[in-house]
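Class prep. Sample record?

___
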Amino acid sequence: MSTRTSTFLQRLHEWSAQAARAQVADQVPLTESVRKIAAEHGLNPNQVARLCEAANHAVYGRLFKEGDGRLFSFPVADYTRIMSELAEMESQPEPQAEPEAPEARDTKAAEYGRAPGDVLPRDEALVDHVFRHMFPKGADDSTALQEKEAAQRLQLRLNRQIAALSQLQAVKVADQFALDDREEELYGRVRQAILEGETPEQIYQVIHNLYPAVDLESAGSTWQKIFERLKAENLIDPRLEKEDFAVEPHLVNRESPVAQSVVHYREAARKVAVDEHSVGHLYRQIGQLEALRRRIGRPEGAAPRRGPPE
């Protein structure tokens, strides 16, 4: 271990404690304290990252000891912002922004928006492929028997899928009831926290920091429900709007009642979302089978099918 590395490790605890004191006692953001320390001592990117982590843990430890299990959260040291500000201080040119990727088409949303039983364009292509495989063009009159047997097999499979759909819909109803219960539990604990002096900003940050970064839309939906109920009961400033809050990286006391309820509600909502996706998937499968059955079946006395229509 080099002398410089050894010195950094010796000072790491001192610097992190210094940043934590400034955050807890004087409300100085950790990002600002870490940036000042890094600039003053010429820390490299790896050392800045280590200091961010140590400072975050130092603040969390102090608040956990002093909070007696109550809800708390705080803005963590933002490594990316610190490095950006240090680069600007050194008058380094800003890196060019990467070109934006072309907007991806939300195929899942497009598919889910169709009515049950609708066959999507790509499903129609699948139907054609299966049909051509089952009844090649130029088949003889025995195709009629093949069609009858295929129709019977498709009907059996269709019946199984419809039964599975019915069972899944029952599960979805039960999971929705469980989600409603979790929502009431979450609101009750948030309401109690507000009455005990917690702020809407704290509740907002707890909710958004306990959801994965890729699922902030769900976090926003959860916050909107809570926010509207708090305003309806006049528990928060009526001048506040839900757009007045912005997501910031926070460390959250996961053992607080509100945090635990957020996690329970999030998991219950995830189950309902999975149910909805599975129901949509079964609807599409049933639509494909129905389309195949219609193409195989024909009025009595009609000429045998020689292949799919051109």
Residues 101-123, 299-310 have pLDDT under 50 and may be disordered. The chain has two domains: 3-89, 108-296.
